[in-house]
Amino acid sequence: MGFEPTINQRLLPPTFPRFIQIHSFEAACEYLHELFSKMSDLVKVPKMKTFDEIYNFGLQFSEIQSVFLRSLFQLIVLPRSMIEKGMAMKTLILNSVTKFVSPPILNPKCPINNKEACLQLVDSFLIKCTPAFVTLFQILGHNKARQREKIAHVFEEFGQFQDEADNLDSILHSYFVQQKLSLVHYGCFGSWMLNHNLSLMSQFILSGFELELFAKYECHYIYWYLCEIILNWQMSTLNRVDNFLMTNEINFLPKNAKKPKKRKSIFEKESLLKTAERHMFSAFYQAFRAFLIEGLIKSPKSDFDCEEFRYNHRLGPFQFFNTPAVCLYNQFKDKDEYFIKAYELNKIYGFARDHFDMARGIYEKHSECANQAKIAKNNFVVMRLLSSGLKKLQKIELDFSELAYFPMIRL
To answer: Distance (Å, rounded) from C-alpha 150 to C-alpha 142?
Structure first.
């Protein structure tokens, strides 16, 4: 194996010389073995049929510090031709919508008269969305820092898609009403787009923890926003879609058919994990708020700091979304001040303890959430000790090494 460090010197732009480390034969073999192992994971991608499945896989795969592997993922997912790329993405989006909410207009049994015209409206909406979703996949080819920067730039487009999806639902529902059909079409494409936008917002915030962008004295309003705005909306969206699916399942049955038994929610596991996440974020908001009150987390002097500016800077990219509308700083501050004035310090620690305990109970039932369960259990013990008032602290230690956005609290 040979390598000449200066082989591409004339092809590079004029920059400062960089140190090039030549690995040993053993290290090179180990790297290649890991590279081929990661490449074998890409075999799963062609078997995935929906946008959400491939995008979630791509999010995990893009954590690999290898431009070659990230580029390989792009080539597998997206065809080289622009026309084929658009057609492939439209199919993925359509499969994703059908799996998530199963709109009545896409059901072969739908008895609407002017079905072709309705399907044309749906097709026009999907064609309009396709370039932005292609851009999302292309963003996954960048490193984490560039991903976060570029995702903020597509929020405006996805905010417009939310309004257009709601408008499409209202038009389709009006056709159903005109023909006196028992089917409902409110909140189909709109709910799917809303759930997708909320996932993007969550991804944007959590990547800030992964990149260590947030100071400790900022974390309380970041956790509050995740808990009270994003996850609240996401959980209510999943519940609404589940009720919608059950209603339309009954409406599509023949008149004399028996009503099916109440089935389990198709989002049962996802809703449980979202509930656990919400408990964790709520607990961290309460814990960090108490730490600030006690002075265990130092905040900048008021002469050199403006919390409103920091809040708007961190959450400003969400201004393009009308649903949910960005929560203004004054609204957050009113709720925050009411909370800290209404309860004593021990009570706030007690709330955090209870939330950690409830999250631990959910995570322990899922083997893939072992790290979350471990953190929740540790933090529950710490909060129980602090809520008892038996121990006064001089300092605390926050360990973000297990999970970037769920720190382990140590006394």
So the answer is: 9
Encoded tokens for 152: 């903020």
State the CB neighbour count (10 A cutoff) for residue 61.
Answer: 20
What does 36-53 look like in DSSP terms, one character per residue?
HHHHHHGGGGGG--SHHH
Q: Which residues pair with 397 in a beta bridge?
A: 410
- Whose tokens are 């800290």? That residue is 340
- pLDDT means per 10 residues in the chain (411 residues)? 60 64 86 87 87 90 83 84 82 91 84 82 92 91 89 92 92 84 82 94 94 92 95 93 80 65 79 94 94 88 84 92 90 92 90 94 92 94 87 83 90 81
Alpha-carbon gap, residue 379 to 361, rounded angstroms: 13
**Side chain identity at 388, as an amino acid letter?**
S
C-alpha span between 271 and 196 (Å, rounded) = 15
pLDDT at res. 1: 46
Planar angle of CA 113, 115, 116, nearest 5 degrees: 125
Q: DSSP string of 1-30?
A: ----TTTTGGGS-S------PPPPHHHHHH
β-partners of residue 351 are none
Backbone angles phi, psi at 400, to 5 degrees: -95, 15
The upper half-sphere exposure of residue 129, i.e. CA atoms within 13 Å in the direction of its Cβ, equals 32
Of 226, 207, 209, 202, nearest to 327 by C-alpha is: 226
Count other Cβ atoms within 10 Å, centred on residue 144. 13
Which pLDDT value is given to residue 210? 92
Other C-beta atoms within 10 Å of 302: how many?
8
pLDDT digits (tens, 9 = 90+) for 140-190: 888 888 999 999 999 999 999 999 999 998 998 888 888 877 777 788 899
* Enclosing H/E stretch for 235: helix 232-251
Task: Please give the pLDDT value at position 253.
Answer: 66
CA dihedral 173, 115, 164, 324 (to 10 degrees): 50
Distance of CA 187 to CAs 167, 199, 245, Å? 10, 17, 11
Cα gap 156→152, rounded to integer Å: 8
Cα angle, residue 365 at apex, residues 359 and 371 outer, rounded to 5°: 65
DSSP 3-state of 366: coil
Give 214's DSSP letter.
S
Per-residue pLDDT, 347: 92
C-beta separation of 238 from 247 below 8 A? no
Residue given tokens 């439209």 in the structure block: 90
Q: How far is CA 313 from CA 113, 211, 219, 317, in A?
A: 50, 16, 14, 8
